[in-house]
Amino acid sequence: MLISDAPVPRMLSVAHGAGEVVAAATPGSTMEAANVSSRCGEQILSRGRAEKVLIGGALTALTLVTVCGNLLVVISVCFVKKLRQPSNYLIVSLAVADLSVALAVMPFVSVTDLIGGRWVFGRFFCNVFIAMDVMFATLYSTFTLLYPKYLGITKPLTYPVRQNGWCMAKMILSVWLLSASITLPPLFGWAQNVNDDRVCLISQDFGYTIYSTAVAFYIPMAVMLVMYYRIYRAAKLSAAKHTIAGFPRSAERVPKAATTLGIVLGAFALCWLPFFLLSTARPFVCGTECSCVPLWVERTLLWLGYANSLINPFIYAFFNRDLRATYRSLLRCRYRNINRRLSAAGMHEALKVAERPGSAS
Q1: Minimal CA–CA distance to 325: which of 352, 346, 355?
Q2: Domains of the chain by residue range
Q3: Model pTM?
Q4: What are the 10-residue block averages of pLDDT along the chain, 361 residues in total?
């Protein structure tokens, strides 16, 4: 009994000393020390009060502006008669996707970032959260904006037949179903998400990583780049023909539509390309069990992607006079006679165009 009890104080003192060494290696961060036992080993940061206020204020502002901007788009198209056109249904679909990101994804990411990167919402909701994040943030809603313009410029004779509410509804439904299909494999056992009650990370399985990033980003982006090139080339040729035929205003409108689409596509690529490059490379560099990428790098690229949901409503308004006027009326609480004011503004613009030199030639 005495022999077995004698080593106990020594063992306790050795363990206590080892704990002091670990604590000394990471001063002021008990959360990081506790993270040693985490299966994944993701960084759990300890933030000060001032840092939490600064980060929380910035992320809250980003979320609120994203919600308000995309809500303006949905309200404008749904309640203003002049904007209720089949082609604008696609804008509403993209705005709903961006609004869903702001309401169902950003708040949980904000809370996780404020407490240093630790996931506190449980394993079950981790899978739900990842499914929503992947479904709402895919490229296919942006694809729907490009495809009708592609048909309108490359196949102008058949496009008016396809530009109806039913065709647009089928296109939107197909896009949402395709986006949802990317989220299904982890829910049905192909690849398990990384979740050990500290970390919530999308599955790092090699096959699923290649499948999800290719289907969600690389393949549609490649297709859209080819489509945009053909749109731009057709728009240039159409503009040249209209100029020769004596229709300068038509020559100006066609390249402008191509420019609008180019900016929407470029903004999406600029915001999301760094994140998808990181997501593709991460399992091959870090392995399938966790992420070895610094937390601040992952979060910066993730919020850069979310920022795309913020800027889309401003891109629409910049290139659409009716939408811009509707924004202005709604923000000023001038709800009455919006359609009448838009019609009057359209007639005034048409008169100005008719009075310009060379417009009648």
Answers
A1: 346
A2: 44-355
A3: 0.74
A4: 42 42 40 42 71 92 95 90 82 88 93 90 90 77 64 62 70 81 79 83 91 88 84 74 55 61 82 93 88 89 92 83 85 77 63 53 43
- In this structure, what DSSP letter does residue 342 have? H
**Which residues neighbour 254 within 8 Å (Cβ) at sequence distance 6 or greater?**
153, 235, 238, 239, 242
Polymer length of the chain: 361
How many other CB atoms sit within 10 Å of the CB of residue 335? 9
Distance CA 193, CA 90 (A): 32
The CA angle 177-183-189, to the nearest 5 degrees, is 125
Q: What angle do CA 225, 104, 260 make, to 5 degrees?
A: 30
| DSSP assignment letter at 216 | I
CA distance 102 to 93: 14
Q: Which CATH class is domain 44-355?
A: mainly alpha
Q: Look up residue 272 and give its amino acid.
A: W
Nearest to 224 by CA among 138, 146, 152: 146
